[in-house]
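My current task is to audit a protein record that another person submitted. My question to you is simply how this chain folds and whether the C-alpha cells agree. This is what I was given:
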Amino acid sequence: MNDDNRRKRRRRRRIIASAVFLIIALSLAWFFESQATTTVVFVRYAEINLDEDENPGLSSAGRLRAEELARIVGDIDVVAGIDAIFATQYRATQETVEPLSKRLQLPVQVVDTGNVRGLTDLILREYKGRIVLVVTDREAMPLLIENFHGSKKVPEMGEAEHDNLYIVSIPWYGRVKTLRVKFGTHYVPDA
C-alpha cells in the first residue's frame, strides 16, 4: 500500500509539474506574440500636377509611381501584408495610396502628420506587431521617423525627389532599424 501511495504522489507531482510547465510555455508564447515587431513604411506623396494651384492631385508620372508603390508594397509581407494605410488630408497623399487601397481593400485613414506624437502613439497602440504605411510630405517624414526612434540622419529630400521608401522596424526589444529603398523612376538632382 505504501508503494501505491508513493506512485500516486509521484504521478500527481508529474501532472502538476507538466501543467505548470504548459501554463508557463503558453504564457510566454502569448507574451512574445503580443510584443511582435511593428513595421512602419514611410513614403512621400508621388509627383503632383504643377498646373493645379490649390491642393493639387497627381501628375501622370505621379499616377505611375502610385501604381508602382501598390505593386511593391501590396505584398510586402508574404503572410499578412499591410494592415493600415495613413495619408494626410492633402489630395496628393490620398491619390498616392489609392491604387494600394483598392488592391488591398483597405480604407485610407486621413491623419494630421503635424501631430507627430499623436500619430506615433496611435500606431504603436492600435497596430503593435503589424505593418502600417504612412504617406506624407518631405518635411514631416524625417520627424515621424525620428519619433519612432528611427534614424536621425534621414537625408534631406529634393523638391522633385519622390523615389524614397523608408521602412522603420520597431522590435519590442532591441534597436529600431531604418531602411531606405528606392522605387519607381529614379530621381536625378539638378546639376
User: Anything to note?
Assistant: The mean pLDDT is 88. The CA atoms of residues 14 and 20 lie 10 Å apart. The longest strand covers residues 38-44.
